[in-house]
DNA sequence: CTGAAAGCGCTTACAG
DNA sequence: CTGAAAGCGCTTACAG
């Protein structure tokens, strides 16, 4: 406890210890550390030496209390078993880290009670702001948080009108549908079908229909089939298309799993992708690149999404401290086409 | 903003506000909340009413400073893009939540500098304890943390002798090898091969050889092939086994990806699994159940691992506050066999 | 059972 | 540039 230079910090050394040793006030030590106020080179050196000798580290909890901020932000997601959320979490941490922010992670498993409990606890000043991802919590609870003066950013939030007044960072899925469909059109296809899980994927379908319309086309009823985003439902839809009197020459699936299912169905029926039927998905899951054939798909900008949400939140936190006015903001991030071997120019 | 009962908590209400309104001291309010000291029913009711009316929530940062604890623990992992870590993180959060602990998540991407920086920051009192997973940080930094009096638990740590003095929760991979091999022996196999990535999977190989020895067998040189845990390396090893003058009738792969690769090789050569050759893996990744045929494998107890590590850490934190002595502890969690259709009794 | 007071370890105007 | 003092919002012995 007092054995010469290096001190055991079981009983952590405090700013007072440093002040005493450097023969200054805690205020001066604080000024040296935060560099908020200039300090003479001489005392500055003495303080730094004392810090070094004592192995002093500021207690961030105390600082947090004094400053009224924690340099921590909460990320609320339904789960990270789903790789999509895992990647977003990973990138939010990176972005936060760049601004010296830490990440308090909360998983709600889509349970409104669990979500409420977590939000409630974190709201008690532990965090400076919140990023809440789709389905992670009840919108009512999130609104309550915002009304209590907390900085909140929504990330990918499926159209709840009450969410309108909160800042939101989302993905332009309508554009995803357009990009996929336009690509197929450019490959020369005219008979294009879609597998879609509605209502969640309805904007993708909107994009699909917009692109068709721009080419003077429209999909007949039997070219649209409902799926549930699973491999199996894509497989079934694929079979159904093949059984039509005039099957499509291309299929746009609302996500990669259904696209892979459709490919499986086509292959099982003795046809070839893309030779007989071209297929494009949405997501660019890791399996897409290793499929047979590798899947053309629309890549969702997860990383950009995460970064944008984090930076928007950080600006909001900053804004709150400055007392700035807050207009609600909507930011859409753009997906892009990745061409692989499941599509090709029609021959 | 000021419409009657509900008060704007932009300027958060504090314990003093409550005390004033209930005409008591902050100490009494504190006693009502923490229930540390009995309070008369009457004042208790008055205080609760005031809390309700003001919408008061205790400031956890202030409480943390006063109590010297944050009810937060740090989980340091290399990444959560890897589903193994993602699942562990998920379960640690659950376990922590049960004890009213929050989770500060840090991903180090295997960068020692990043690891050091994160540990350093979190060590400044933000967290009560640390769970550090394999490869997430330099053992030197972790030891420094422990020496500074922090509660630390290692989780799955590949044999660094310097780590010996820290508590560790690990997986018994040797048992995994034994279980897989015994299962194949019980199916009637005598010519059993192994695909292994050494050195990381050497304990699995130990288990493999132990089980064989107990059956009075030993694997010939050419029945052991090195892989790198990838699908492709399993595929290549599978081909190599099939090219032997006397191929094995069963293959134990050090992980599921290699097992799936081996199955692909066997199928491509026109043979059937399990009829001609049985295959068993390790991990039970999600693809294992959906493979053709579904893969028999050894399931790694991720959830138990996570729970055990969390509870051990919580006990350590408790222990530190009581000033208890700390013997290093090693806990091994047991994997178990999952029989699917890639193995069957020899016919 | 309740109150007065000190303390947790910082920061932040304000004097000097 | 430096010090003395108050304050952040709680908790915790200690009296009464």
Average the pLDDT over all residues of chain A and give the rounded result: 91
Number of domains of chain A: 3
Q: Which CATH-level-2 architecture of the largest domain in chain A?
A: 3-Layer(aba) Sandwich
- CATH homology superfamily name of the largest domain in chain A: Response regulator
Strand content of chain A: 15-25%
Q: What is the fold-level CATH name, i.e. the topology of the largest domain in chain A?
A: Rossmann fold
- Round the Cα radius of gyration of chain A to an integer and report it: 27 Å
* Helical content of chain A (DSSP H or I, runs of 4+): 40-55%
| Number of helices in the DSSP assignment of chain A | 13
CATH class of the largest domain in chain A: Alpha Beta
Count every beta strand of chain A, where a strand is a DSSP E run of 2 or more residues.
12
First-to-last CA distance of chain A: 82 Å
* Helix vs. strand class of chain A: alpha/beta
Strand order of the largest sheet of chain A: 2-1-3-4-5-11
| Order of secondary-structure elements of chain A | HHHHEHEHEHEEHEHEHEHEHEHEE
**Oligomeric status:** homodimer
The interface involving the most residues is between: A-B, 41 and 41 residues
Largest sheet of chain A: 6 strands, parallel
Q: Enumerate the spans of chain A where pLDDT stays under 50 for 5 or more consecutive residues.
A: 1-9
Q: Can you tell me the overall shape of chain A?
A: elongated
Brief description of this entry?
By secondary structure, the first copy, chain A, is an alpha/beta fold. Chain A contains 13 helices and 12 strands.
Account of the protein in words:
The structure is a homodimer of 347-residue chains. Chain A folds into 3 domains: 44 residues, lambda repressor-like DNA-binding domains (434 Repressor (Amino-terminal Domain), Orthogonal Bundle); 134 residues, 3-Layer(aba) Sandwich (Rossmann fold); 128 residues, Rossmann fold (3-Layer(aba) Sandwich). Chain A has a 6-stranded parallel β-sheet with strand order 2-1-3-4-5-11, sandwiched between helices. Chain A is elongated. The first copy, chain A, contains 13 helices and 12 strands. Chain A has 347 residues and is α/β, with parallel strands linked by helices. The N terminus of chain A is likely disordered. The interface between A and B is large, with 41 and 41 residues. The structure holds a DNA duplex (16 and 16 nucleotides).
């Amino acid at each position: 406890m007092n054995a010469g230079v290096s001190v055991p910090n079981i009983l952590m050394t405090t700013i007072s210890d440093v002040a005493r040793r450097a023969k200054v006030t805690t205020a001066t030590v604080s000024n040296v550390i935060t560099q908020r106020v200039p300090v003479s080179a001489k005392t500055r050196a003495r303080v730094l030496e004392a810090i070094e000798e004592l192995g002093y580290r500021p207690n961030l909890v105390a600082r947090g209390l004094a400053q009224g901020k924690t340099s921590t932000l909460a990320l609320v997601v339904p789960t990270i078993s789903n790789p999509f959320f895992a990647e977003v979490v990973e990138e939010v941490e990176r972005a936060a880290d760049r601004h010296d922010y830490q990440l308090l992670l909360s998983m709600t498993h889509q349970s409104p009670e669990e979500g409420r409990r977590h939000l409630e606890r974190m709201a008690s000043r532990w965090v400076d702001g919140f990023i809440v991802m789709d389905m992670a919590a009840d919108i009512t609870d999130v609104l309550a948080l915002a009304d209590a003066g907390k900085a909140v950013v929504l990330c990918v939030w499926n159209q709840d009108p009450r969410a309108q007044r909160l800042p939101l960072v989302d993905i332009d899925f309508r554009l995803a549908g357009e990009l996929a469909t336009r690509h197929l059109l450019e490959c020369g296809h005219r008979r294009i079908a879609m597998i879609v899980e509605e209502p969640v994927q309805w904007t993708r379908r909107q994009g699909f229909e917009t692109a068709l319309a721009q080419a003077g086309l429209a999909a007949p009823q039997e070219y649209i089939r409902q799926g549930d985003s699973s491999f199996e439902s894509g497989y079934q839809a694929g079979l159904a298309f093949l059984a039509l009197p005039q099957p499509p020459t291309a299929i746009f699936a609302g996500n990669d799993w259904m696209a892979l299912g459709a490919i499986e169905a086509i292959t099982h029926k003795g046809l070839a992708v893309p030779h007989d039927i071209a297929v494009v998905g949405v997501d660019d899951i890791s399996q897409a690149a290793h499929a047979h054939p590798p899947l053309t798909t629309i890549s969702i900008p997860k990383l950009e999404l995460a970064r944008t949400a984090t930076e928007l939140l950080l600006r909001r936190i900053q804004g709150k401290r400055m007392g700035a006015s807050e207009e609600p903001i909507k930011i859409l991030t753009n997906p892009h086409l990745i061409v692989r071997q499941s599509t090709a120019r029609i021959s």
